[in-house]
Amino acid sequence: MENKPIVIEGKEYKIIEELGEGGFGKVIQVLSKSDNKEYAIKEIPIKEEKKDKIEEIQNEAVILSKFNCENIVKYYGISNENNNIYILMEFCNEGNLRNFIDKNIDNETLIEENIISNIIKQICIGIKEIHKRKIVHRDLKPENIFMNDNMNIKIGDFGISKQLSSYKTHTLTNKKLGSEYYAAPEILDNGIYNEKSDIWSLGCIIYELFNLNIYYKDAIRRKIKKINSEIYNNKWQELIDLSLEPDYKKRFDINQVIIFLENELNNKKSIENLGNEMNRMNLGNKNNKIIGEIYIKKEDINKDVRIINSFENVKREYGWKDEDDDIEYLNEKEIKENIEIKINEKIIEFTYYYKFNKEGKYNIEYSFKNNLTKTCYMLYNCNSLISLDLSNFNTQNVINMKSMFCNCISLISLDLSNFNTQNVTDMCGMFFGCNSLISLNLSNFDTQNVTNMRNMFYGCYSLISLDLSNFNTQNVTNMNLMFYFCDSLKKENIITKDDKILKILTEQ
């Protein structure tokens, strides 16, 4: 391999080593001279007879550029020079899922169920993002699922992915698309595909993680696709069967897979978690303790990053003055005098901002005294928060939760079990803009005194499961735009006996 650096968009990348080679070309590990960071470059030679297929080759870059998801390989740029196409991508330093499976085969050790569960959850988050954009991957397999530190999973290799005009079935001109061992029967038999073709591939991957054998080699797609029920929860077998349903019309879609994981395998917290340390962090809360996880991005390093907010921060951000306040608000004083913040077990003095030294995940804990009367705007715009556990948080004196989680755009996991809301009157915009939330359980919420639910779930467009059992709206006078832009939320996925709520969802 030549030592001459690769140039993409005017920046030089020093070649470290070749990571792999296939019919398309090769993948190379490189070091950027501008930021001293490692990347992966896909180098694709343009042969004379293939020049008319440059659009196809560049398709992967177009697809990757659409995503900003922690479970999808990041795209950084593309270059066409020296008779090669170069695609600059995120470097995954732990290889791919195939390497991981093979290592366990070599060691003759089954993979622990919690590890498999974590891998599957992250793959599902990536698939949901892909399908949300009306894209079908069409080549999901262990070789195309990459791994970073701490078992962070990244879906990659979108070379044959397809943007759909709608979620209808499409026909291939070439039936030999993707990898035969993971290709759905409708592709192999009839040359047709839709988003459920990816679910078949997911089922094959799940089967392989539990059995350390490729499903197609094992069973030739017959009836033998069993996992060891003496070692693993047999509910996984149900998920495999539902994912490997030969009739794609009866096969699960990704939302049904996620709901099954949450409801049947009790994975409510961790299915929505982008990291792998939620189980370690789930220590159980005492009164008025919030346990969470934040992710600090590279661009925020050495910047002041907001980790907790109150209405005073909202005023400062938008330049509001005291006379502009449209509500009675004393929460600034309450929060400032009653909070202790601990990050990675280090207690820090109260501050609205905190400087971080490096990119990555941090455990965060807020401890409050028990005399809060308002939590409105408390976590407003905390857009680095990934997960929060507020179970048993003492809110018995709180009367106002307006915009409490507003614009927590990265919040995936939220536990509000045993949350005391009996004295709350205002939940306006409470989850406004939480566009990464997938599932939310508000079954124990006492809302008998609430009068305002305007914009409560506005913009929660990833929300697919909502438990509002025992939700009381008899005194609510304002439910305007309550479910506006909740595009993924279907009537059948809301648990409620309140016809008023179902009517609002249908209308919005």
Which short descriptors sum up this protein?
single chain, 508 residues, alpha+beta, Phosphorylase Kinase, domain 1, Transferase(Phosphotransferase), domain 1, 3 domains, six-stranded antiparallel β-sheet, six-stranded mixed β-sheet, 13 helices, globular
Describe the 3D structure:
- It is a single chain.
- By secondary structure, the protein is of the alpha+beta class.
- The chain folds into three domains: 6-90, Phosphorylase Kinase, domain 1 (2-Layer Sandwich); 97-266, Transferase(Phosphotransferase), domain 1; 278-507, no CATH class.
- The protein has 13 helices and 23 strands.
- It has helices spanning 54-64, 97-107, 113-132, 185-190, 196-211, 215-219, 235-243, 254-264, 268-271, 278-281, 311-318, 331-338, 499-507, and strands at residues 6-8, 11-22, 25-32, 38-45, 75-81, 84-90, 135-136, 145-147, 153-155, 162-163, 170-171, 192-193, 289-296, 304-306, 339-343, 346-348, 353-355, 360-368, 385-389, 413-415, 439-441, 465-467, 494-495.
- The strands form seven sheets. A six-stranded antiparallel sheet has the order 1-2-3-4-6-5, covered by helices on one side. Strands 16-15-18-13-19-20 form a six-stranded mixed sheet.
- Helix 3 (113-132) packs antiparallel against helix 5, helix 3 (113-132) runs antiparallel to helix 8 (254-264) and helix 5 (196-211) packs antiparallel against helix 7.
- It is globular and about 70 Å long.
- The termini are far apart.
- Mean pLDDT is 80; it is low at 163-168, 172-176, 218-222 and 268-286.
